[in-house]
C-alpha cells in the first residue's frame, strides 16, 4: 500500500488539461448560435432522449427514493473518501492490479505513456473515457509518437473528423447521419464508396474499421464508471460492446479514473445501475456492463493498471457548497433538459465537461479565478430543470449562484477602485435598507416612464446595465408603486415604511 496522504490539502491543488476554456462562454455561445444545423441536430437528439427518459422513469414508483439513496451514498463517499481509497487500493493490489496516483493531468499522462512503452507498444485502443479527455491523453500520446484509436462509435466519429466531443454521453450529438457518412468516406481508407447514411450500414463500416485494431492492439486504455472499495472491482457501462473488446483482448489494460468514482459496496452499485441507464439513454437496463477484479491467470489482460486521478478534485472537495458536484455519475440528464445547452451545444463551454454540470464542475476543478472558466457559472437561466433531472439530486442552480458570488468576490479583490457594479450594489443596499429611503427612490419612477416613451419599453440602458438590454427590452415602470397603491387602498403607509433601518435595528440588538 502506498503512503499517499489523501486528506484535504491546506492549499487546494487545481486541475489542468482540457478543463480550461480558451474563450469566455458569451463569445463562444454567440458564434455557435449562428449554426442553424447544429441547433437542429441538438434539438432533435435531446428531445428524443428526454422523452425516452421520462417514459422509463415514470415506470418506477420509487424513483424519488432511488434518487435520495443515490445522493446519500455519494455524500457518504465524499465524507469517507480517504478511507475508501485506501480500502480499494488494498483490495485491488491484492488481486494482482497496480495502482498509480496522479496529482494532475501531467502526472497521469506521463504514467500512461511509460506503461505503454514498458509494454513495447506504439498504439493503443481506447474505450470512451471522460477522464482521459479531461487530461488530454490522446493529444499527449500523439506528441510522444503513440497512436490512440477511439473505439466508441461516437468518439470514433469525432476523432476521425478532428473535432471535439460536445456531449458527455453522445459526443457526436451535433452531427447528423449524412455528415457521419461523409466523414467515413473521407477518413476510412477501405470503406465502401457506395456507403449510405443508413444507421446499420454506418455501424457496419465502423465495425470493420475497428475489428483490425481490436485484434492487433497489445494495450488498451479505459475509463471507469464505478469502483467497488470492498472488493477492488472496476466497472464500465456502455451500449455497443466495443468497450468489452478493449477490456478483454489486449495483454495490458490501463484504466484512468477520477478518485470520486468510488462506491463502498456491491449493494451501493445496485442503486446506480438503476439510476444511470434510465437517466442517460432512457433504457431500463444497461446493454453491456463489464466488471473486473485484478488479474485472472490465462484469461484477459495479464497486466492491469489503474491511474487514480485528482486533477482538482481535492480542491472541489474542499468547497463545502460545491463538493456535491463530485457526486456526478456522467449521465448527461442535466444537459438534455437545459435550454441553454440545447441552443449553444457543448463546444461553447470550452471545457471537457459541457452543459449545466460542466458550468459548475469545471470552475470547481480549475478554481473560479481561471480566467475563461469564470464565465461558465453564468451560462444558465437558473430554471432548475437540471436539478429536477439529476439522478443524484445535485443542486446545480444553488452551486451556480454560489460560484457567481465567488467570481464577483475574486474580481473585487483585484481592483484598486470600486467598479460600476460595486457602486450600484452599494446604492441599492443603502436604498433597500430602510422603507423611507425606498419610498424616496420610488419618486424617480416617472423618469422611467418618460425614458420608455410611447411604446412603453426601455430599449437601452447606460453603463454595465447595457448588457441587459442587448437582447431584451424592459417594460416601462407602472403608473404607481405598490407603496402608493397600498396608501390609497388602505389609507396608511405601506408595510415597512416606518420601520427602523437595518443599521439601527442592529444597534438596538
TrEMBL record:
Residues 85-307 form the LUD domain. Residues 469-509 are annotated as: Disordered. InterPro entries: 4Fe4S_Fe-S-bd, 4Fe4S_Fe_S_CS, FTHF_cligase-like_sf, Helical_ferredxn, LUD_dom, LutB/LldF, NagB/RpiA_transferase-like. Keywords: 4Fe-4S, Electron transport, Iron, Iron-sulfur, Metal-binding, Repeat, Transport. GO terms for molecular function: 4 iron, 4 sulfur cluster binding; metal ion binding. GO terms for biological process: lactate metabolic process. It holds the Pfam family Fer4_8. It comes from the Bacteria. Residues 325-394 form the 4Fe-4S ferredoxin-type domain. Gene3D superfamilies: Alpha-helical ferredoxin (1.10.1060.10), NagB/RpiA/CoA transferase-like (3.40.50.10420). The keyword 4Fe-4S applies. NCBIfam families: LutB/LldF family L-lactate oxidation iron-sulfur protein (TIGR00273). This is LutB/LldF family L-lactate oxidation iron-sulfur protein. It comes from Arthrobacter zhangbolii.
